[in-house]
Design goal:
385 residues, 2 domains, 14 helices, mainly alpha, 69% helix, two-stranded antiparallel ribbon
Length: 385
């Protein structure tokens, strides 16, 4: 490799270039300033009015973008196809849900200040030890990152230390989320069983159904989306990011050069799980429920489709894929619900065969097709002369 290229690799790269910062700040201004202002417009006289019921939906899309971003960090940059990221998302959501349940107090159906309604219904006599502390917001937020992170640390340490790679790590992570699905469905686990946790009243003293609270949750979700993107961008541009790319492309060579592949994978996997947990915690107060269905292996597979369709290994492409596919899902499940799974499968097949670099790679792919066609026409013309 030429010396200039080596120096270019060694030189630290900026987090974003001028164009990138302009786009980042422009999108942020649109989502954080313009959208809230549009909710204030009169609904009868302005077609630009954003109804209050759309605000939590937009916040939910921001959570999905964070979730897609978390998977792209390990799949797009480390080559770890996790089919269990829905579990980390759900665990973060349950931690937030437990906090929200503890805030209900005597306003529940049974009026028990200590026990949630489902525990009273099931004749629980006292609050389980693992529910202790969730009445405090800081403790609950600590659990949001700690529980998914610890699970990813334990699972990743055993898997990566044993050099479990490829399709096998996908099977292991999918088995993990299916096991959690079965466990959380049980009433004696103390997490609400099939119904999960719902009927939330307030968060930090604010009524959770109030339009102002929903708008605040939406803005917080968008801010976290931007911060998570910058964090992942920083990681991927760092030395760790370069090691992860090398591990993805040639793991055995990285081991030969003396790098700890296990540690590199483990850091990325744990960070990814934490981001997924944060997305789950932001998601729950906006949708008003968390149940074992979030552990479904199908949800984790769908997350992988978001990333593949958007553009694996780009960060922003994964986020775009998460938002676009859920926009289509929201519309199609209302217009033709029986077609949704077929459309989702078709999108995944198309992204694999027709545009392997995802939606964000279509521009470059179209440009390459045009250049190839121009070269072919030029060669044909030269041969004719």
């Amino acid at each position: 490799m030429p010396k200039d290229d080596l120096l270019a690799l060694a030189k630290p790269r900026p987090l974003l270039d001028r164009r990138g910062w302009a786009l980042f700040l422009g999108v942020g201004f649109l989502l954080i300033v313009v959208v809230p202002l549009l909710t204030l417009l009169p609904s009868t006289s302005s077609i630009l009015h954003v109804p209050n019921y759309l605000v939590p939906l937009l916040g939910k899309y921001a959570c999905y973008a964070i979730l897609a971003l978390s998977l792209d960090l390990v799949w797009g940059y480390a080559g770890i196809l996790s089919l269990g990221h829905g579990a980390f998302f759900a665990l973060g959501g349950y931690a937030m849900g437990m906090y929200l349940m503890r805030q209900i107090g005597t306003r529940g159906v049974y009026g028990n200040a200590e026990l949630p309604d489902f525990m009273v219904f099931l004749n629980w006599k006292e609050l389980p030890w693992y529910w202790q502390g969730f009445e405090h917001f800081p403790f609950a937020m600590l659990m949001v990152v700690l529980v998914p992170g610890l699970l990813a640390l334990v699972l990743g340490w055993f898997a990566f230390r044993s050099r479990v790679t490829g399709v096998y790590i996908s099977i292991v992570t999918q088995a993990m989320t299916f096991a959690l699905l079965l466990a959380f469905f049980r009433n004696d686990m103390g997490f609400g069983g099939n119904n999960g946790l719902t009927d939330f009243k307030e968060i930090l003293g604010f009524p959770i159904q109030a339009p102002s609270t929903r708008l605040g949750l939406y803005i917080i979700s968008v801010i976290f989306m931007g911060l998570c993107f910058l964090l992942c961008r920083y990681v991927t541009l760092s030395k760790l990011g370069r090691v992860l790319l090398a591990v993805r492309d040639a793991e055995s060579r990285v081991r030969f050069f003396g790098y700890s592949v296990t540690n590199a994978k483990l850091v990325a996997f744990v960070l990814s799980a934490v981001l997924a947990g944060i997305a789950g915690a932001l998601y729950v107060p906006q949708v008003g429920i968390i149940n074992p269905g979030e552990f479904s292996p199908g949800n984790s597979i769908e997350i992988a489709i978001w990333v593949a369709v958007g553009g694996r290994g780009t960060l922003y492409g994964a986020m775009l894929g998460g938002v676009l596919i859920n926009l289509v899902k929201t519309w199609l499940t209302g217009a033709a619900p029986d077609l949704w799974l077929f459309v989702l499968g078709a999108l995944f097949i198309a992204s694999t065969l027709l545009f392997p670099k995802g939606v964000v790679g279509l521009v470059g792919q179209v440009k390459a097709w045009r250049e190839k066609r121009a070269a072919y026409l030029a060669a044909d013309k030269a041969a004719g002369e």
